[in-house]
Design a protein that fits this description.
6 helices, five-stranded mixed sheet, single chain, 22% strand
Length: 179
């Protein structure tokens, strides 16, 4: 059988790789599961906002080209939580709305394994990275961590959106809709 020079080079490279992986397995090999064909999953972008009485936001899908397409909007009534006018609960309200947003995206049938949160509360954004502090957020944090586990969220990123730029989600959080 005639073997071309290029084929011999490829065979030689595989021989060298095999020897190197035998000499230093951790450095020159990788687990078989990393060879699986990876299909690109879309990123779910959630832009949300909350007031002490309610919250709302938009759910978008980000394509490979970076373009975001709105696939849904939501509002949630937070009055029953009894925050009243106590501003100490503002960040908790923001975080609860982010948790509701992820759940809403999932209920819409979207894969939420890649999530990007965009909101105007830097504290709530830090909580989305599992940096929880304070008693007020503990229940929402438990729900959030549970959701990340059962929905198999691989990636959560965040982006602070200054309040004056968060107009669309702010209107939804105050019960204003576009019709």
């Amino acid at each position: 059988i005639y073997v071309t020079f290029k084929v011999r080079q490829v065979c030689r490279m595989f021989q060298v790789l095999l020897v190197l992986s035998a000499v230093d397995e951790m450095e020159f090999s990788r687990p078989f599961r990393t060879f699986a064909i990876k299909t690109a999953r879309p990123t779910i972008v959630i832009e949300c906002d909350a007031s002490l009485g309610g919250g709302g936001g938009m759910i978008m899908i980000q394509g490979e080209d970076g373009k975001e397409t709105v696939v849904g909007c939501f509002t949630v009534d937070l009055v029953s939580l009894g925050f009243g006018t106590d501003s100490r609960f503002q960040n908790v309200a923001e975080f609860i709305v982010a948790v509701v947003a992820i759940r809403t995206a999932r209920r819409m049938g979207l894969s939420v394994t890649r999530v990007h949160l965009r909101m105007d509360s830097e504290t709530a954004l830090s909580w989305s990275q599992k940096k929880f502090r304070g008693v007020q957020v503990s229940a929402a944090a438990c729900v959030y961590c549970f959701m990340l586990a059962i929905y198999q969220v691989e990636w959560v990123s965040d982006e602070h959106l200054a309040g004056k730029l968060n107009v669309r989600a702010d209107k939804l959080s105050r019960g204003v809709t576009w019709a």
